[in-house]
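Supplementary Data S3. Sequence and structure tokens for construct A.
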Amino acid sequence: MIELDTIKTSRWPEAVTIMDVGPRDGLQNEPYVLPAAKKIRLITGLVDAGVKWIQATSFVHPKAVPQMADAAEVVAGLPQRDDVHYFALIPNQKGYERARAAGMIHLALVLSATETMNQRNLNLSVSESMAIAEQLLRRAKNEGVMVRVDISAAFVCAYEGVTDPGQVVQQTDELLAMGADQICICDTTGRANPQQVAELFAALRHERSPDRLAAHFHNTYGLALANTVAAMQQGITFFDASIAGLGGCPYSPGATGNVATDDLVNMLNQMGVKTGIDLERLCDVSDFVQEFSGQLPPSAYYRATRVKKKVA
């Protein structure tokens, strides 16, 4: 008989940090505009469940994303906790100025790995976005603002197909040299597979600290959890997720929401990886999502537990 303790297994991290992006990435693609008071209630529920990193809103042009037109109002109503870090997504200098005027000190600057996605999303070339990033990162350092840069379409682009990994590695190096605090590698389309994820993160961590890297997986083809495991095997311990699986991307046709925070926490709990998040209280927040959306959340854990309870 094989002794299980003699089998060499993957070394999983002791703990993982989760940023819930549901209030921003989740809501920006919904057909309705959720009132600011309900957004604040959603965020408060996440905080009460133990989520310490939350992407609360984005300062983009209201005509482009009307769901985020109330960004300043949402920021003003955020529950104040010293141990909770609220982020706002920004696309450019104007977004930076609006976010700072609202009091934000944690920002996520978005740009793309491919030209077409960058043009569709930001109406800029990649080189123009990189130049803006350099200016904003220099300014942020002077103002004591933490900035992570989200590289979208890092694996597969909805318009150009498979993304060149070398482009992502080069962008990452340039952005870190500019002063980015963290780089988030985003599977915007949800078309990445675990082999792609493992290979790209293996290349990225070769000469870079995995602590400076994060991952953002959409679940379009049901591979987000598998991709998370592949990234963890390469030392990545910071992941985005969306409460109840809310979301999509208006510039990536067919993409569904991020991996459900409920499912991610459940998997990590089963693996003995700490998150500091109370899963049942998290599902209480998913109850609220179902209430205001009128849709059964795609989270597998939620459907397997809460739906059974309601039927019973």
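Construct B, processed identically:
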Amino acid sequence: MTLETDIHDARVALAATFRWATRLGFHEGICNHFSLMIPGRDDLFLINAHGTHWSQITASSLMLLDGDGKIVEGEGRVEDTALYIHWRVHRALPHARCVLHTHMPYATALTSLEDQRLHMTNQNCVRFHDRIVYDNDYNGLALDNDEGDRIAAALGTRDVMFMGNHGLLVVGRSLANTWDDLYYLERACENQVLAMSTGLPLREIPTQLVEATKNQILSDASYGESHLAAIQQVLDQEEPGYRS
């Protein structure tokens, strides 16, 4: 495949996740950002332009940036906090081929607590066992390289960050599986918030069973691919304009 084809296919798939995130209420105004490295390249990534509502994002509206954070293709600009978080995380962490940052309601609710931990209380939670970093050093808006680099360093080799008093950052090696993680993370957080609302004790799953179930869930990467493919099938029928 050519670079042009790779970029086009990445644009279409990433646009689909924005549209679906809107349906799920993962978006917040015109804020928050998804970014994706072009397959086979370490110097090109896609990200949403400032001011475009996620429900209106199309493949062609996404911005293409280079390894220095400069715009290669696209009209408009990239919002500053998006640049300093996504560009610096992509630059620092080889496993962060895809970077998804949201203020999803239930996950963000947990980051607003003194104890923001995700407890291993249900099947959706266990997939994230030993994959989460809890960042308690909220520094306001990420408006410089130092803050982006601090976030990247704090994330390290893990792929989920609970950003205290802020939101969520989920990274991964492919869009499909990173999206799958983002989806199930919000479902896990929703379950925990609802369970906590009862005022009754949480029932933790034994650690040995947590480890075994996590390995079962993550052993087949095709689930993420199938999830994204199913989303695109629905969008192709109901709002195919995302591909334009």
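The first helix runs from residue 3 to 24. Strands lie at 33-37, 44-47, 63-66, 71-73, 98-102, 132-135, 160-163, 167-172.
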